[in-house]
Amino acid sequence: MEALQISFFGAANSGKSTLVNLIAGQAVSLVSSLPGTTTDPVRKRIELPGLGPSVLVDTAGYGDEGELGEERERLSRAVIDSTDVAVLIRSGHPADKKWEELLVKSGTALVCVERGADRDSVLKMIADAAPAPEERFLTGSLVEKGSVVVMVMPQDSEAPKGRIILPQVQVLRELLDRGCIPVCCTPEGLPKALKSLSGLPRLVITDSQAFKTVNAILPKNCPLSSFSILLAAAKGDIRVFVEGARAMDSLRDGARVLIAEACSHVPDTEDIGRVKIPALLRKRVPGIQVEIAAGNDFPEDLSPYSLIIHCGACVATERVVKSRIRKALLAGVPITNYGMAIAYLQGILPRVSLP
């Protein structure tokens, strides 16, 4: 179950931090009579009555003038994409109406309160506005109870020592919950894993970077997908991503491609988004320009780009992914994801199973 993100917006010194601390029942944010005390968004994970796992986000107040005030507002706007319920504290500031319109336009569930609102009433308003949770399987209709599913998990320098990465954990847990029989191996161990089975598996799920290797090993009638593609279908719009992958045929020298990562991490020499995908793109179009946006640093202006390639978004919510898709479509920029892009660039997208 994804945590509900509740973000608090309002003018500088409007009482946002006080309300966040009241809701949390503890000192999450620094409270001061000086305006502009909160600069970067402050996040606090918490279990709330009637709401369950939640993340409270205290944003910087709007209304400050100058370059610093503009930067604070930019950071606060970036929070909207990941927000499930926005709480706007009205304080009579001239910018209240502008921000209310901005939040409504974003499609975010909105709760408007006055300075000094009490905890119980605000919690009830948030609970009433919160979107109903929807159960969705990453593997969709690709498997059923009793299905044998082979999971191919490369253990290169990108794999964390002593554990497996989040998308693999999520899919493995789902397969167990659905009564499937998962078989885990590395690309090197795949031939032996297949021989150990009495027949073909119902599905093979691989890390996208091993698509080419795994595809060469599998019989052509064996269904193949990737962790990234399963996440893309569950959190985004699979049809938009397929069309975005096909748009790579129109890329020319000088085109700007944005690689968008939902998380921030320290890349290494085998990084899929910063090394492997750019190398595949440049093999097809040598003069292409690749730019990276990590975490919340998703550009507000997407018009300079010819294509956006988004990560699997294992740490991002469905709302974040769909918000970015919507922004790309409004800007007229094709968008796809890591798994789709790699499959297309390697010529195997038509044989990949989509949920």
Question: What this model shows, in words?
Answer:
There is one protein chain. The protein has 355 residues and is α/β, with parallel strands linked by helices. 35% of the residues lie in helices and 19% in strands. The chain is built from twelve helices and 13 strands. It has helices at residues 16-24, 66-80, 96-106, 119-129, 166-177, 190-195, 211-217, 227-235, 238-246, 272-284, 318-330, 338-345; strands spanning 4-10, 42-48, 52-58, 85-90, 109-114, 148-152, 181-185, 203-206, 224-226, 256-261, 289-294, 307-310, 335-337. Strands 2-3-1-4-5 form a five-stranded mixed β-sheet, with helices on both faces. Strands 7-6-8-9 form a four-stranded parallel β-sheet, sandwiched between helices. The radius of gyration is 22 Å and the shape is globular. The mean pLDDT is 90.
Topology, element by element:
Elements: E1 4-10, H1 16-24, E2 42-48, E3 52-58, H2 66-80, E4 85-90, H3 96-106, E5 109-114, H4 119-129, E6 148-152, H5 166-177, E7 181-185, H6 190-195, E8 203-206, H7 211-217, E9 224-226, H8 227-235, H9 238-246, E10 256-261, H10 272-284, E11 289-294, E12 307-310, H11 318-330, E13 335-337, H12 338-345
Parallel strand pairs: 1-3, 1-4, 4-5, 6-7, 6-8, 8-9, 10-11, 10-12, 12-13
Antiparallel strand pairs: 2-3
Helix pairs in contact: 9-12, 10-12
